[in-house]
Amino acid sequence: MPQAPAQPVFPRIPTREGGLELSRIVAGMWRMTEWDMPVAARVEFIEQCIALGVTSFDHADIYGNYGVEELFGAALRAQPSLRDRIQLVSKCGIKLVSKARPGHTIQHYDTSASHIMASAEESLRKLGTDRLDLLLIHRPDPLMEFDEIAAAFARLKQDGKVLHFGVSNFTRHQFESLNRRIALATNQVEFSPLHTAPMFDETFDGLQDLGIAPMIWSPLGGGRLFDALDERGATLRQVIQDIADRIGQPFCSVVFAWIMRLPCRPIPLTGSGRIVAIREAVLGASFELEREDWFRILRAARGHEVA
């Protein structure tokens, strides 16, 4: 019986020159509490990701109602050798109203130095590690003070608890304001064929200008690309499927290839516990869409020709 072709494995990509390196595809863990995996299955999943070249794992303190980091940490405790083979990313700055946090009376942002430090410590404890490779501010906070955030980041780095820093969902100006105070590794933003704003609001242009690669959350539109009841998604889905059929690649691989075609070098996250979905995302880095096909998807995404 003929064997399936070997899955391509890619080297890590620097988010900026001389800075943090992440795998070309990052495994997003925000749904891990929904995957119903025992510890052994979590260990196996991490090992399968590593085998595909997916060595970076994205977390946030609030994911899974403050539960995901602990689940992932249990896998690292069960197989300690995994830690030195992966990069751990986490986020802080959002306080949810939750039974896990009875002191929170209203959902709000907190980017004070004390909260950043405490959140980092809690992430380290739950993950069972002595350092985070990357810590992000999860959302812009109207009360954030850039100097205070930079000072907290600098202290965590000095103590060896966090190696690199970044932000998530920041505007170009917000990113550049903090980046002037302390070197940032990335801005993790929402982007997909169903959410193209970062291409047109200077987010990607600004990062390309600085030589900093963005991380991309919800690259498949939060599943809307597969929603038969979503009329806009259905039209776009057909265009992508036609291209996928013509070039002989999986549908999801084409979407990931479309995202990674951008010159700012986006680093997409997956959101699935299925290894086949991770494999298709990785496959998207093995080919490049023709410019005409790339614009066919953009036209379907926006509903009109370029001017």
Brief overview, please?
This protein has 307 residues and is α/β, with parallel strands linked by helices. Helices cover 39% and strands 13% of the residues. It contains eleven helices and twelve strands.
Describe this protein with a few key phrases.
single chain; 307 residues; eight-stranded parallel β-barrel; two-stranded antiparallel ribbon; 11 helices; 39% helix; disordered N terminus
Structure description:
This protein is an alpha/beta fold and 307 residues long. It has 11 helices and 12 strands. The strands form 3 sheets. An 8-stranded parallel β-barrel has the order 3-4-5-8-9-10-11-12. Strands 1-2 form a two-stranded antiparallel ribbon. Strands 6-7 form a two-stranded antiparallel ribbon. Helix 1 links the parallel strand 3 (26-28) and strand 4 (56-58). It is globular, with a radius of gyration of 19 Å.
